[in-house]
Specification:
alpha/beta, nine-stranded mixed β-sheet, six-stranded parallel β-sheet, 11 helices, oxidoreductase, Dehydrogenase, Gfo/Idh/MocA-like_OxRdtase_N, Gfo/Idh/MocA_oxidrdct_glycsds
């Protein structure tokens, strides 16, 4: 557990002018638990935009300045693209601060061992910012999976597709395998893999098929079949697919769970499950997932109870991504190395 210097947790955002500016910094403006106190970014104009959501935050354009302001934040939120995570995680470890890092942990196999080595031997709280876990709907679905009232799980499907704008600034690194990874699995697909791990456990093997709809150098569409303790789980991820079926479906021996729109940026409003001929729908209060993931991490620093993606989870999901990409290239099932 960690301490805080004020009545709220102060968040220092490292690389805060990309995804963090779009989602995390605005989400924390109304938080009663957390405050953004320092924002780092290379673009002064985008830093000024961040200041509109965090008017009292100190703004810096240099990583050295961010380190020098360490007394002004309790937690480091790493908002950079995954190819920068090894460097930024090493920076946060030097500071000895709790780390909340954007997903995925890394996008390249060679970086995974380096990050694990950096974090090993340090008693520093770490969580990966997978927003989907931080909602009541996921906890309810998990209880249906383990509760037995619908029988045993028979199969599951998770899908996240979207149409990537190749003219957007982040498309330059997302479509570059040396920076964004070899496939859509390090983008939208990693959400599916993390949620599958949360619900069904980490898979032992994977078979994948992939192709490219638009990208010249990456596999922008991937279909994955996981074996999670013998349970077949299918994941569909595409950076060029229509988002209309971004759902989670779980078939049981005696029932069915359907979470329409589960895979997305907004919290799931309702879950429907069928048992025999009876169908039940449970609705959930709206929640900002990007605020919830930060608040949940900060609560865990006080109470020691984590509800998010641990380092072990993050490493296992990366191993699954790389095994799936290997499977797609080789055209055969691959055992996942831990």
């Amino acid at each position: 557990m960690a301490d805080r210097a004020a009545d709220h947790w102060r968040i220092g955002v490292l690389s805060g002018t990309g995804t963090a500016l779009k989602r995390t910094i605005p989400a924390l403006r109304e938080s009663e638990l957390c405050r953004v106190s320092v924002v780092h970014g290379r673009n002064p104009d985008r830093l000024r935009a961040a200041a509109q959501h965090a008017p009292h935050a100190k703004l810096v354009t240099d990583e050295r300045e961010f380190e020098e302001l360490a007394a002004h934040y309790d937690v480091v939120f790493i908002g950079s693209p995954p190819f920068l995570h090894p460097r930024h995680i090493a920076l946060a470890v030097r500071l000895g601060k709790p780390i909340l890092c954007e997903k995925p942990l890394v996008s390249r196999p060679d970086d995974l061992a380096a990050v694990v080595d950096t974090l090993s031997g340090h008693d520093i709280p770490f969580m990966l910012a997978h927003q989907l876990r931080h909602q009541e709907a996921v906890r309810h679905i998990s209880s249906l999976v383990t509760g037995g009232e619908l029988g045993v799980p028979v199969a599951a499907t998770l899908q996240w597709c979207f149409r990537m704008n190749h003219d957007a600034p982040n498309a330059r690194w997302k479509a570059d395998p040396a920076r964004g990874g070899a496939s859509a699995l390090t983008d939208c697909g990693v959400h599916c893999l993390d949620l599958a791990a949360a619900l069904f456990g980490h898979p032992e093997s994977v078979a994948a098929s992939a192709h490219s709809v638009k990208s010249a150098s990456t596999m922008d569409t991937v279909v994955v079949l996981l074996s999670c303790g013998g349970l077949p789980v299918m994941v569909v991820a595409s950076q060029q697919g229509h988002p209309g079926a971004n759902d989670l479906t779980i078939t049981f021996s005696d029932g069915l769970v359907q979470a329409k729109g589960m895979l997305g940026e907004a919290a799931l409003p309702a879950v429907t499950w069928t048992q025999g001929s009876a169908t039940t729908t449970r609705s959930f209060d709206p929640v900002n997932l990007y605020r919830a993931e930060v608040e949940d991490f900060c609560r865990s620093l006080s109470n020691g109870h984590s509800v998010g993606t641990t380092l072990a989870d993050a490493v296992a999901v990366c191993a699954t991504v790389f095994a799936a990409e290997e499977s797609a290239r080789r055209g055969e099932t691959v055992t996942i190395k831990r």
